[in-house]
Structures are given as C-alpha cells and as structure tokens.
Amino acid sequence: MTLTTSVSCAAAKAGDQIPPLTVQPTPLQLFRYSAVTWNGHKIHYDPAYAAAEGHPGILVHSHLHAAFLARACTRWAGPLSVQKLSYRIVRPATPADRLTITGTVTSRDEEVDGVLLVVDLVESNAEGRSCATGTATLRVGGADGGAR
C-alpha cells in the first residue's frame, strides 16, 4: 500500500493519510484530567511520587492518549465521526514529550447512510518512538452529522 498525502475524509481511500496532529501535554492538563476523571493516582500529577515509582516524570493517562487519537480523527472527519476506537499504550509519555498522531486509512466501505473508514493510528514522541497505537472506525456523511 502506497501512502499519499492527506485528503478530505469524504474522498479518502485505503492508503491515504489523515492530517497529523501534534500535542504537548502539560502538568496542568494532567492534573485537570486526573480531577475530571476522578483518577487519584499520583503518577499523573505528583513529580516526586512518579520519580519514587521509577518514572521519568509524571505520566500521561492512558485515556488521555486515547483522547489524543480520537481528536486527530474528529479534527479531520468531524465531531460525530468516531464510531469505534481501540488503542494500546506501548510506551509512557510525560509532559516533556511532544506527541504527534498520524493515521492511515486502511479501508473504505460505502453504506446507505454514509461511508465507513477504518484508520490505523500511531502516536509518536519527538524521537519517533510509538507511545500509543490504535484503530478507529469513522462514519462520514449521512444523517448523523459526520463530515461530508
């Protein structure tokens, strides 16, 4: 499969890339994410505790990695496009990491109420090492308000 430059989601086909998204988590974002998700684990907001546990700094939450993957999809295909998202954390990330999410369309299925796209996603740090991987199923077009 040959990768091409990013295209509109309505015209996407297998091999096309979604636009990359780069994020830089901050300690404040991790603290707030802990608060709104009721996650009291100190590795996400207490640097001394995270260091005592052997981590290089406070860690990005697994669900926040997933939120970054989903954001890359919704930024491209629209706010109601994500039908399914699965992900796996493969390496921890800290606020020192600049993370870039890329995605490649692996399939396109025309349906009566829109188009289903399957996108393989990778979140990588500045060194190009994967921190999270995932697969998203996106519905574009149709009555649900997905991108057209």
Folded structure, characterized:
It is built from 3 helices and 5 strands, in the order βαααββββ. It has 148 residues and is of the alpha+beta class. It has a 5-stranded antiparallel β-sheet, covered by helices on one side.
Summarize the structure.
With 148 residues, the protein is an alpha+beta fold. The protein contains three helices and five strands.
- Main β sheet profile: 5 strands, antiparallel
Q: Per CATH, which architecture of the domain at 9-25 and 60-140?
A: Roll
Mean of residue pLDDT values? 91
Helix content: 10-25%
Distance between the termini: 25 Å
Low-confidence stretches: none
CATH topology of the domain at 9-25 and 60-140: Thiol Ester Dehydrase, Chain A
* Shape by Cα distribution: elongated
The CATH class of the domain at 9-25 and 60-140 is identified as Alpha Beta
CATH superfamily of the domain at 9-25 and 60-140: Hotdog Thioesterase
List how many beta strands DSSP finds: 5
DSSP helix count? Answer: 3
H/E series: EHHHEEEE
Radius of gyration: 17 Å
Structural class comes to: alpha+beta
**Spatial order of the strands in the main sheet?**
1-3-4-5-2
